[in-house]
Amino acid sequence: MSRHVTIRLDEEFHDRLKARAAALGTTVTALITEVTERELDEDRKNFLSGIEEFADHWGYFQERFGH
């Protein structure tokens, strides 16, 4: 079951959103849904957290294992 949600966007942002959706071959609704689902995905958050931790130690990896 899906729910109807109303949001307010300024015209410039809405135009940008429509253009992005069109470039991706999708609808504004589908794009907003995809981005929101991605933001709420705990596995994605854990993955991004791991990347940040890896980036914090990148210098060590370069020194230890070369470029």
UniProtKB/TrEMBL annotation:
SUPFAM superfamilies assigned to the protein according to its UniProt record, in alphabetical order: Ribbon-helix-helix
Q: Where is the Ribbon-helix-helix domain?
A: 6-49
Q: Which Pfam families match?
A: RHH_4
Against InterPro entries, the record matches this protein to: Arc_rbn_hlx_hlx (IPR013321), RHH_dom (IPR027373), Ribbon_hlx_hlx (IPR010985)
Q: How is this protein named in the record?
A: Ribbon-helix-helix domain-containing protein
Source species: Streptomyces racemochromogenes
